[in-house]
Design a protein that fits this description.
Number of domains: 2
Subcellular location: Cytoplasm
Pfam family, one: SmpB
Distance between the termini: 52 Å
Strand content: 25-35%
Protein name: SsrA-binding protein
Shape: globular
Keywords: Cytoplasm, RNA-binding
Structural class: alpha+beta
Helix content: 25-40%
CATH topology of the largest domain: Small Protein B, Chain: A
Number of strands: 7
Number of helices: 5
Family: Belongs to the SmpB family.
CATH superfamily of the largest domain: Small protein B
Order of helices and strands: HEHEHEEEHEEH
Oligomer: single chain
Largest sheet: 7 strands, antiparallel
CATH class of the largest domain: Mainly Beta
CATH architecture of the largest domain: Beta Barrel
Length: 165
């Protein structure tokens, strides 16, 4: 009985809350980072309910700090007047060396910081942040064509393995 409760607690403390599925379609991912997020108590409680949206979220650098903007965490339904604003700016927690390398890479070219995933690790909220470059329309079409071709090859290989040519 105690083991079952413990497994439930571990699973609950290591869950994915939200993913940004369009990010890999719209951007070429160059490098990923894991960052902590500075949150209020009602935001964490709302995230435990599994409700958040990374659809329009992005990260910016202001005065040597990284900020996550446009992340939507709905108000906590049991909250009182101390509830949070759903789309407030949230500070990302990274080491100074990581922030400096990100600032240097962002200055070099037309790259952006895109959040890919929001999740819990040992009870702490983390965000997977990607250093990305925007794709053009032709790149997106090429990726779709390549994915379709790979899928068709896999189907044909499966048919041949089963003896259905």
């Amino acid at each position: 009985m105690a083991k079952k409760k413990e497994d439930e607690a571990v699973r609950r403390n290591n869950q994915t809350v939200a993913t940004n599925r369009k990010a890999r379609h719209n951007y070429s991912i160059l490098e990923t980072f894991e960052a902590g997020v500075a949150l209020m108590g009602t935001e964490v409680k709302s995230l435990r309910d599994g409700t958040a949206s990374l659809a329009d979220a992005f990260a910016t650098v202001d005065d040597g700090e990284i900020w996550l903007r446009n992340l939507h965490i709905p108000e906590y339904h049991h909250g009182s007047w101390t509830n949070h604003a759903p789309r407030r700016n949230r500070k990302l927690l990274l080491h100074r060396s990581q922030i400096d390398t990100l600032i240097g890479k962002l200055r070099d070219g037309n790259m952006t910081l895109v959040p890919l995933k929001l999740y819990f690790v040992d009870g702490k909220v983390k965000v997977e942040l990607a250093l990305a470059r925007g794709k053009e329309a032709r790149d997106k079409r090429q990726d779709l064509a390549r994915r379709d071709a790979d899928r068709e090859i896999a189907r044909e290989m499966g048919r041949r393995a089963k003896g259905r040519t």
